[in-house]
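FAQ: What does the model actually see?

It sees only this:
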Amino acid sequence: MKSFEVNFDGLVGPTHNYGGLSFGNVASQSNSQQASNPREAALQGLEKMKALMDMGFVQGVLAPQERPDVAALRSLGFGGTDAQVIEKAAKEAMPLLVASCSASSMWVANAATVSPSADTADGRVHFTAANLNCKFHRSIEHPTTSRVLGAMFADPEHFAHHAALPAVAQFGDEGAANHTRFCRSYGEAGVEFFVYGRSAFDSRYPAPQKYPARQTLEASQAVARLHGLSDAGVVFAQQNPAVIDQGVFHNDVIAVGNGELLFHHQDAFLNTEHVLAELHGKLQARGAAFQSICVPRDQVAVEDAVRSYLFNSQLLSRADGSMLLIVPEECRSNTRVWQYLQSLTASGGPVREVKVFDLKQSMQNGGGPACLRLRVALKETELAAVNPGVIMTPALYGTLTRWVNTHYRDALRESDLADPQLLLECRTALDELTQILKLGAVYPFQIN
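And it is asked to produce this:
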């Protein structure tokens, strides 16, 4: 039976703005208060989706969230009509309004952790929505994320959905941004690689001093249990606290993996030799030949990796066995990174080609190609059970492009978030989108 790794990319929402909300994310903070272009952001994301589809990869779409989140503002004491809630929040607590308008759900690598059926005890694909409780603007995402994923992967014979972990610091869960799967082929049992920043209950583990470690060991272990993963099929590794303090807020800013290959920076992990040895041993037991490409710090410094998002790239397997690396334009703009990439593709190793995409709108808010996609390994029968409305086709690309051009603004500043009309524009657009993607009622304004 054929199997596929499907990339479900997040569709950028109509309220895409630079609020500078993500402490520890250098790009997010450094571009705070600049004017954004939601239309351009959404079109840039769609162009990447179409390009991968045109290259023969199965590509899907994950819908954005309703913003501003009026219900979240009401829960914080703002009352009246929806327009009055927005007006009061803008007058009394503008940072809360900005947070409730964040389009951060576009980075669907944080939407959930996904385990393919070949790895799980019950033979189904398992999804656990990430609680994202480190940041308020992201912690309000998981209820809608769960409904959207449930509408996309609805067949209980093939798919199992778990609620987000308890929303407390000890179980901080940032989803697939700290999770990678290695395997010989997507339909065979693999090894799932969980990377955490700290332990919540064991003080012997070192922790960063400047920026928060968002993923805990305890959260990763809980997800592995929920998904029915065996000890032989998991490896837990700790991020290097020193790189977290340099802006590596998720593992996917310093490492990326696919198939049998891990592409990582020299300083990505603590106890690197032990981590690589465990991955090698467990993959070998599953018939896979693990390999790693370590990028030396004297060729690419951590600072260059963070600024270029070299590792926040998509590593894709081609039919001939070679791999393609999808990187943002910022990699080409960084001389040291680009020189490294040229030497990488010329080395005769598994990564044979690099393709560059302009994702400036997302990059300025701290999210690159890897942030924009949720990977789901599916067997042929499972892919057939996915809601067909969310699978990218030439016709869907055209429809979504027209939809964006119809409903999205071409400029958005913080002051614009106080306009009640923006909420109406967002709801009108999303109501139409649920019909386009055949999702049914997934948004609060459609349900309540």
